[in-house]
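Handout, section B. The chain below has 131 residues.
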Amino acid sequence: MRANTYKEIPENKPQHAPKVSNSKWVKKLSKLKFISNSSEDENSRYIQKILFVTFLGILYIANGFQAEKSHLRINKLEKSVEKLRVEYSTLKYDFINESKRSKIKERVAPLGLVPLETAPIVISVSNLEDH
């Protein structure tokens, strides 16, 4: 078996810095010092606040558009519900009207059915258990 030993680290090995991409947008982004907290320029102190207020303004406008869209959708649904309520009332009235005795008499007359002129005879049967 081998004995445990410590790994030797060479001390004179230079450490490499992480590579930074040299693309155009990285260079342009690094030039935008107004985003950082440095106070090199008088105007750069207020740019962060202006950007934040602009962002809030965009959110406010977007929220207004969303509210208007919801309001229009609600109005459309209310009109649809009103139309369905009117249709329900019409059908309910037609059903009640068609189930009246006079309407039924008119509809069954071609079939040769007539209503009774006398009251129906009631047949009563005594309990069969009593006998």
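Note. The first helix runs from residue 24 to 31. Compare this with the example in section A.
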